[in-house]
Structures are given as structure tokens and as C-alpha cells.
Amino acid sequence: MAAVLAASTLVSPQLTGPFPVGTLGAHLVDSTRLDPFQPSKNRELMVTVSYPAHRRGQQAPWLAEGLATAIDPIISSPDYLDIPAGTVDWAKTLRQARVDAPPIRNKWPVVLFSPGLQTPREFYAGAADDLASRGYVVVTVSHTHESVAVEFPGNRLEWGLLPDSKPETMKKAIDARVADMRFVLTQLPRLHRWADTSRVGIAGHSYGGYTAGETMAHDRRFDAGINIDGAMEHTGDGGTYAPGEVVTKGLDRPFLLFGGDLGDRELSHVDTSLTRTWADFWPKQRGWKRDVHLDNGAHLGFSDMQWSLPQIAQISPQRRADLIGTINPEDALDAQHDYVAAFFDLHLKHRGTTLFDRPRHPGIRLVG
Domains in the chain, start-ordered, CATH in brackets? Predict the structure, then answer.
């Protein structure tokens, strides 16, 4: 974890696994599906693949320059970080992964990752790279026209087109996401030859957590999943309670709930103040299940904001607490990396762990 910096360039955390990491970006076009947000053309996606590699090549930028320039005013605005635009040079912040580094030749299990609603996939690069360093091929997906912005080849930016948060809009978003994840898995063998698609996990944050569960409910190729701090519903603003099939039917494969706090309330299956979907899911889940909680952690602390915000001196202490909680950032990051990896190690690599029997990290509480 880097110390607070006076300069505007941030430092990404060191990888905790034994392998260096390579990375590549890919532009995918689903010729069988029209884009639900722009039905005049086929669905296009951008993905990032992180994988165990030999330590060669240049470190990858956290955000591409075009995307960084476009979204800096949004990230810096009073609705988000509340700092002057241009405070951080996002494009000069480097990941630990190296661009197009030669892969280590081995059959690696796969984890697909879905970001939060309207959130760029790049904001989960740290988590993806760290999991890859522990022996996984990790694919993060941008959900085009729902994400605030997606940068395609040729410096083309496609902006978010979500008009509102009505139930029908939220249903369109979750259906698009599930179709996106299923399509990406189908395309993966041509993206990375060492991806073992017989062992596939899926994870996501916020609406991405809902995406992980709902994708598993519709596609048995996904063997295990994690919902990170996400309600599993498309109820939207003012709508009738509309949980996903993952909630109403449950799953017969392993699924982890990993929640944080919102003020005095928590996201867990024993607290329905934020959403009742976790409580409704719990008795329907037929496969392995656990509910792990990060005390004093906040919603955006499950993204790369966990390591980047503490380095930005201009962010007020209250804003930082609201966004990433009051838990020690290094402790939070260690816990997140270890629990996500332990879950997939257990269910995709069949390696035993005691992390789900007794907590070994500050702030971690086993709810069930």
C-alpha cells in the first residue's frame, strides 16, 4: 500500500500472489445479438484479460488516456470525490500487470468479473490483477451503454445511455449483463489459449454481484460465484419488489455473499434494511454458501477506490469514510484479496482453507 502522495500520480498495490501478471484488452462483437440500448447495431464489448505471465513488457496504464480525460470531471465532481478536476493524473497511474506479457503455459481456472452499475471495468483492475497473480485467468467486462463510458479501439468513446432507474430500465440492464457474461465466456478460448473453461467462476460488485448470481442461474458453465455487496433485484425506483431468479430459485453450486456497511446498516442475510434479497436467497441456496462481512467497510471500498483514495490528500476525511469506510485500507485490501482467492481456490482448485471457519483478518466477521 503506497503512502499518501503529494503528486497527482497514484501507485497501485503490489501483487500478493506468486506469479507476475500480463494483461491484454479485447474488442468483442456479438453478431447474434442487437444492442438493447442501441438496437440499430450489434452488441459490442470491451474486456480486459489478466493472466499469469513472465515478467516482461511495460506496466499497463490503469485508465487509457481518452477514458481518463473524459471521466475525470465526473470522478472529481461533488457527487463523487469532491476534488478539483485535474487533481489526479489517472492515465499515468500504472497497474502492476504488464501489457501483452508472455503467458505462463499452464491450464488456469477462469474468473469473469462484472463491475458495479455504470462503473468502468478499469476500476477493478487491482482486484483482477491480484487474483491473476494467484493463478487465474481473470476477465473484467465493460457493459457498453450502461457503463458511464467505454473506450474502444481508435479512441472511440461510447457513453452510458441509461435514461433512469425505473424497473424496466433495470431489468434491461440485468438482462444485457447476463447475456454479456455468457457471450464473453464463449469467446474466451480464442482470447487466451491457457484459460481452462472447464473450471469457471464469476464475481461482481454491486449490480455486478447481482449479475454474477443471475448469470449462474441461467448458465451452468459457471461453477461458483461471489456477490460483493450487491442487492440481487431489479426493483428500480418506486417499483414492486423484483428479485432475480438467483433469489427466488437459489443455486445448486457454491455462492459467496461478501458484504459491507452503509452507515449503521449492513448488507447481510440477517439485516434486511438495505435489501431483503440476501435474506430471501439464503434459505433457497442449495449449494455451498457463506456470508462474510467487512465491518467498517463501505460500498466503494470493494473497488480500486480502496487503494487509490487514501493517496489523494485533497479528499476530505468524511468523504473518504463515506466512500470506502473507516477500516484500515491495507487491512480491507488484504481481506478482500484473500477471501476472494480462498473461495475460488476451494471450489475451482479444490484447495482447503480455514478462512470460512474462523476469521483471520481485522474487520472480517462470518455472518453465516
Answer: 21-366 (3.40.50.1820)
